[in-house]
Design a protein that fits this description.
single chain, mainly alpha, two-stranded antiparallel sheet, 15 helices
Length: 470
């Protein structure tokens, strides 16, 4: 591969690994805050025990996420120095705010929460975790502010060969940001919900702390059911925004080679021949693409070939078509994984209402394995967003090939060696995280022999009057 290919591969691998941990941090902090708020309101110790248990898993996840995130930012100065020089005046501002404000807020109150169980009042301790939730969300907001500018640059001017910010307000009101941030935030809460739901199902399935984990099963099911629907609505708004903002990405995501008529179908699956610009086999839903793009049954959607001709006319000769097959199937992977999560969440909600979820061992096993679904959806969504923007690193401003560091400074061999070092280091971190997670999950809640005899824990809260499943 070329130096550019190695740089893209390294950034892709390290970013996906880092993104395994970010949504769980955002989503799990929110759910822990919900559990602790219930504890403050009800004074039921089981919710305090659960907040501690999930907090342990959260802290492991947060630690790995921080380390991988710090290493991620160094790549802008190593592999992508030309890009950083070109956009640093704009791109650097939201990243600086994220580090100096949101991350410090998050980190400070994580410390207060982790070490303040016996030092803070119940209300102050609950406030600390809610401030962690605020910090994680603000971190996501500022990082997505920078990413949205790459997708749809606004509030800038070109001066002396560099992009300089002319309006911070325009950057903050970027239309791309306000469809991208809600989608990512809700997807993160859905990720945390399925993380909690899957592990709760595993504990109930293996008959460990059944009554306690039934509470977290209930909370995560309700949150997953709500967010699985909301994330579809905001995701639909984000996709509709592509019609004007990035028509090439939308066309590639649908493998639509030529502009459709006023009634464009949506392809469920397709075989893609990128060389001949055809899709030999397709299963389609009539008029669905038009409906998704315009919220009506009439409207033309531009095709890849037509957008390519427009971009050649505007930017000069070149191939402006992203990898179509990758964009097409990553988009569908995200959709199918999200749909599966919604179906599982609502069936779990149905069983919860019927008080029959404990007996459904087969479903508890499915939920345990379903922990992979949000990771699959998040990774596929990120791939679709970033690969579909190619060959631009900043849409319409800088080609990815022109953003990589000069080869005299950073050679292909340098990137190859650093990539191998990253893989070894990240692999060791992944092994450590999984080992610690596994150990915490197998241990379950902190041993408490008096749990079953607590007078303030009614047996019929979730399980019914018998409470016999432990």
């Amino acid at each position: 591969m070329t130096q550019l290919g190695w740089a893209e591969l390294q950034f892709g691998v390290t970013t996906i690994f880092h993104f395994f941990f970010v949504p769980v941090t955002i989503g799990l902090s929110f759910l822990i805050a919900v559990l602790e708020t219930i504890y403050v309101r009800t004074k039921k110790p089981v919710y305090r025990d659960l907040a501690k248990f999930w907090g342990h898993l959260f802290l492991i996840n947060f630690a790995v996420g921080v380390v991988t995130g710090l290493l991620q930012e160094f790549q802008f100065g190593l592999d992508w120095a030309t890009y950083s020089k070109f956009v640093g005046d704009v791109f650097g501002a939201p990243l600086a705010v994220e580090a100096l404000a949101a991350f410090f807020l998050e980190s400070t109150f994580i410390g207060a929460w982790a070490f303040g169980w016996d030092r803070l009042s119940a209300r102050a301790h609950a406030l600390a975790i809610w401030l962690v939730v605020l910090g994680t969300s603000l971190s996501a907001f500022w990082i997505l502010t920078a990413n949205s500018w790459m997708q749809e640059p606004v509030g800038y001017a070109i001066s002396h060969g560099k992009a300089v910010m002319t309006s911070f307000g325009a950057v903050l009101t970027n239309p791309q940001l306000w469809v991208e941030f809600p989608h990512t935030e809700l997807a993160a809460i859905l990720t945390g919900s399925f993380f909690m739901l899957a592990i709760s199902a595993y504990q109930i399935w293996r008959k460990k702390n059944v009554e306690a984990f039934s509470h977290s099963f209930k909370v995560s099911t309700i949150v997953a059911a709500i967010t699985s629907v909301l994330v579809i609505f905001v995701g639909d708004a984000q996709a509709a925004h592509l019609v004007k903002a990035q028509p090439m990405k939308l066309a590639a995501a649908e493998a639509l080679w030529n502009t459709s008529s006023k009634h464009a179908p949506w392809s469920v699956v397709a075989t893609i021949n990128a060389k001949k610009h055809t899709d030999p086999f397709q299963i389609q839903i009539p008029e669905m693409l038009t409906l998704l793009a315009y919220k009506r049954l009439s409207g033309s959607v531009q095709g890849i070939n037509q957008v390519q001709a427009q971009m050649v006319h505007r930017y000069g000769p070149g191939n402006y078509i992203p990898p179509v097959a990758v964009t097409f199937y990553s988009f569908r992977t995200m959709i199918f994984a999200g749909t599966a999560m919604m179906a599982l969440a609502y069936y779990a909600l149905y069983l919860l209402r019927k008080k029959r979820f404990i007996q459904k061992t087969w479903f508890l096993r499915i939920l345990t394995w379903a922990i992979a679904l949000p990771y699959l959806a998040n990774s596929a969504g990120w791939i679709m967003t970033e690969v579909g923007r190619q060959p631009w690193v900043v849409y319409g401003l800088q080609l990815t090939a022109r953003g990589v560091s000069p080869e005299v400074s950073v050679s292909s061999l340098d990137i190859e060696l650093s990539l191998m070092a990253f893989i070894v280091f990240y692999g060791a971190m992944a092994y450590a995280a999984i080992h610690l997670w596994k150990k915490a999950i197998q241990q379950g809640l902190d041993p408490d022999p008096d749990f079953e005899q607590r007078a303030d824990e009614p047996k019929d809260l979730i399980l019914g009057s018998t409470g016999a499943y432990d």
